[in-house]
From TrEMBL:
Signal peptide boundaries: 1-24
Transmembrane segments: 709-732
Pfam families in UniProt: LRR_1, LRR_8
Protein name: Toll2
Gene3D superfamilies from the UniProt entry: Ribonuclease Inhibitor
UniProt keywords, alphabetically: Leucine-rich repeat, Membrane, Repeat, Signal, Transmembrane, Transmembrane helix
Organism name: Penaeus vannamei (Whiteleg shrimp)
Superkingdom of origin organism: Eukaryota
Record domain LRRCT: where: 470-530, 655-702
Length: 773
């Protein structure tokens, strides 16, 4: 809207006598006919008036102008009541007093058809006394009126419904009057109104709903609106279509404290608009189309504490625009087109700024301002605003959390960085000078949250984190965050991280980005990260939970163990090594003697071509050995001894074990150390349909003598038998002699004594002594 007077249709009336061709008209009335006009009456009296008829827009005699003398009290229309002006569409009453009947009745009396009139101007009446304002019925009968001008009449008020009879009105001027307020219903029936002039009045109040029905209003002029109202504290010109303002609109309003002009069509602002407003506390210019602010526009607003410029089209701000605003506490610049921020814009050296809203702009913190990259901490544009409590930077193009928050802003409680382009968050981004901060990172592009060094944040700090709507990746970088989220034990003290709506958080695995996993159900122990440097045909990972470096070379048709990149070169100090060689064609383990395998704790090599195991090549760090599905038939006793002496977990099944005496050591090991062998019931004998642990010792290793022992035993047995036979034959042949000899020598008497006594009829005892000779 244009706040300056717009002379469109009414201007035509003023210049009709100059630019329109003046025609003669038929003699009528009791008037003196002059050149192009009638003068009534002929005498020079105060009631004297003149009538001018002219052409406009190629319509003959379409303009009727009634001119009265200054101070005229009445107009005697009977002097021309026999005239006829059927072509008149534009009517002008100049310095003529208010009639006591409707203007439509006046028009009829002077020969004008009221329904033909589209423009009416009622100008420069010397009134202002009570009872001389217009009445509600004055415009009855003018239903086709499209332009109405009430200028310089000193009206003190207008009836609330005076315009109810002019629904087609699109231009209305009410200027140079003494009106202090307008009724909220004044424009209720003028929905076609496009241009409105209200300047040069004495308004002290305009109701909120004054313009609510004027949806087609495009121009409004209010200049010098407040010239007589020096004590106004609050002005609200909201929800209009004001497109420009005069420079001196608020001149002299030294006590104005609140100025609100939101939801208008302002594109530019006069540089001196606020010059006379030293006590302004609140300035609200939101929801206009302002493209720039004049340099020095706010230089006099030292106590302004709330400034609202959001939802405009500001792409840049002048140097030092807020510098003098030492009392500024809240600044709203969201929904503009700002791409950079400059330190010099903001209050300095004194500042009270505690809330700044810069959301929905194009700020990236990667542009250069005054030759310096503002993403650098020391050049952060708000670095000197040390009293900040709330900062909103949502919906911009920011790619990282500014590190200035770790050293400044001891009062910061809210930081909104949602809807930006941040891809990575680590523990440093959660370091704040203040003790409790609500950090909003929702709907960024965050894939990684690495809180490995979160112990650097004091345990008493409280961080309320909102992080929903980010494409998190289920990998090892998420480990510490996930442990905190799931309430699992950590080996360190950490701050109080309170995550909003944890049940809504999801992540996806690399290669399966279309499938989201609920974060609360993801196992932190299994999270891994890929490594770029890795042996050919292998994949390398790290697993944070047990600090494991994993080299996966499964199913690659390898014939030997590959050379790996050491932990030191991978920057994985204090990491153990897991080697997965499943389903290859490897026949020996010699390569694990190499230095890069000295931290090997898990060797998984099932389904290969191993036939023997040399324990001397295995590193001391080894804790898991999986040799299932190879070609082992037995294990050397030295290997079993190694298993017994080390704390190692084994998988030995699915090998072609031959159950014989060579496996007795392994069987004994399984029975004593079965907990070490995860699959002891899968160790089966190829020569028995049984598991090794269930085979009896006799079946496993039956006692079989050597051939030489058998031969020696046979010879000895035959010799003994032959000797026995010979002894028997000899005894029977020399039986008596032997018995005598035995008796004589008193040997084996038990063998022959009974035999001598059997079958004897008499017993005799013979005694003799060696003394009887």
């Amino acid at each position: 809207m244009n706040m300056k007077p717009l002379w469109i249709l009414p201007c035509l009336v003023v210049v009709f006598s100059m630019v329109a061709e003046v025609h003669g008209f038929s003699p009528c009335g009791k008037c003196v006919r002059g050149e192009g006009k009638l003068t009534c009456p002929s005498d020079m009296v105060p009631e004297r008036f003149s009538v001018l008829i002219s052409d406009y827009n190629e319509t003959s005699e379409s303009v009727f102008e009634l001119r009265c003398l200054h101070g005229a009290k009445t107009v005697n229309f009977s002097l021309i009541d026999d005239c006829s002006f059927p072509n008149v569409k534009y009517v002008l009453f100049n310095r003529c007093p208010r009639p006591n009947v409707t203007f439509a009745e006046v028009f009829r009396r002077v020969g004008i058809e009221p329904e033909n009139v589209v423009t009416f101007s009622f100008l420069s009446v010397d009134t202002g006394r009570p009872g001389e304002d217009l009445e509600e019925w004055h415009f009855r009968g003018l239903g086709n009126l499209t332009s109405l001008k009430l200028r310089g009449n000193h009206f003190q008020s207008l009836p609330p419904n005076i315009l109810q009879y002019t629904p087609k009105l699109n231009y209305f001027q009410l200027s140079f009057n003494n009106i202090s307020t307008l009724s909220e219903t004044l424009f209720q029936n003028t929905t076609q109104l496009k241009i409105l002039h209200l300047y040069e009045n004495q308004f002290t109040h305009l109701p909120d709903g004054l313009f609510k029905n004027l949806n087609k209003l495009t121009n409004i002029s209010l200049w010098r609106l407040f010239r007589e109202t020096k004590n106004i504290y609050s002005i609200e010109l909201n929800n209009n279509m004001i497109s420009s303002l005069p420079d001196d609109l608020f001149k002299g309003l030294n006590n104005l404290g609140k100025l609100k002009m939101k939801r208008n069509a302002l594109k530019t602002l006069p540089s001196g608009l606020l010059a006379d407003l030293p006590k302004l506390e609140v300035l609200d210019l939101q929801s206009n189309i302002i493209e720039e602010l004049p340099s020095g526009f706010l230089d006099n607003q030292r106590i302004t504490d709330i400034l609202i410029l959001k939802n405009n089209s500001l792409a840049e701000l002048p140097e030092g625009i807020f510098k003098n605003c030492a009392g500024l506490q809240e600044l709203y610049l969201s929904h503009n087109k700002l791409s950079i921020l400059q330190n010099s814009w903001f209050p300095a050296p004194a500042t009270a700024l505690r809330k700044v809203d810069l959301g929905s702009n194009n700020i990236s913190f990667s542009s250069f301002a005054s030759g310096q990259e503002i993403s650098v901490e020391e050049n952060f544009p708000l670095l000197n605003q040390v009293n900040l409590e709330e900062l909103s930077l949502e919906d911009n193009r920011i790619t990282a959390v500014p590190q200035a928050f770790s050293s400044n802003y001891v009062n910061l409680t809210k930081l909104n960085l949602s809807h930006n382009d941040i891809e990575f968050v680590d523990a440093n981004d959660l370091i704040f000078k203040s003790d409790e901060v609500a950090l909003d990172l929702k709907y960024n592009k965050i894939r990684t949250i690495n809180l490995q060094h979160i112990q650097n944040i004091a345990a008493y700090k409280v961080i309320d984190l909102s992080i929903a709507g980010n494409p998190l990746v289920c990998d090892c970088n998420l480990y510490w965050f996930l442990r905190i989220l799931q309430g699992k034990d950590l080996d360190r003290e950490v701050p109080q991280l309170q995550v909003k709506s944890p049940e809504s958080l999801t992540c996806s695995y690399i290669g399966d980005e279309t499938t989201d996993k609920q974060l609360l159900r993801v196992s932190s122990e299994m999270l891994t990260c890929s490594l770029q440097e890795c042996p050919e045909r292998c994949k390398c990972f790290t697993r944070t939970h047990d600090r494991m470096y994993i080299v996966d070379c499964a199913y690659q048709k390898l014939h030997e163990i590959p050379r790996i990149i050491s932990q030191e070169k991978q920057n994985l100090r204090n990491y153990s090594l897991t080697l997965n060689l499943r389903n290859n064609s490897i026949s020996n383990l010699d390569r694990v003697e190499d230095p890069e395998y000295r931290y090997l704790v898990n060797l998984t090599i099932p389904n290969n071509s191993l036939i023997s195991l040399n324990e001397s090549v295995l590193p001391d760090s080894l804790r898991v050995l999986d040799i299932r599905g190879n070609n082992f038939t037995y294990l050397e006793p030295s290997v079993i001894d190694y298993f017994n002496k080390t704390d190692i977990t084994l998988s030995l099944g699915e090998n072609p074990w031959i159950c014989d005496c060579k496996l007795t050591d392994l069987q004994s090991f399984l029975r004593i150390q079965e907990l070490k062998v995860l699959d002891f019931y899968n160790i089966r004998c190829t020569n028995f349909n049984e598991t090794l642990i269930d085979v009896t010792e006799g079946d496993l290793c039956p006692i079989i003598l050597p051939p030489e022992v058998i031969i020696a035993s046979t010879v000895i047995s035959m010799f003994l038998i032959l000797s026995g036979v010979l002894a028997t034959v000899t005894f029977w042949k020399y039986k008596e002699e032997i018995k005598v000899w035995l008796f004589t020598h008193r040997l084996c008497l038990w063998a022959v004594a009974h035999e001598e006594f059997d079958n004897k009829k008499y017993d005799a005892f013979i005694s003799y002594s060696n003394k009887v000779r």
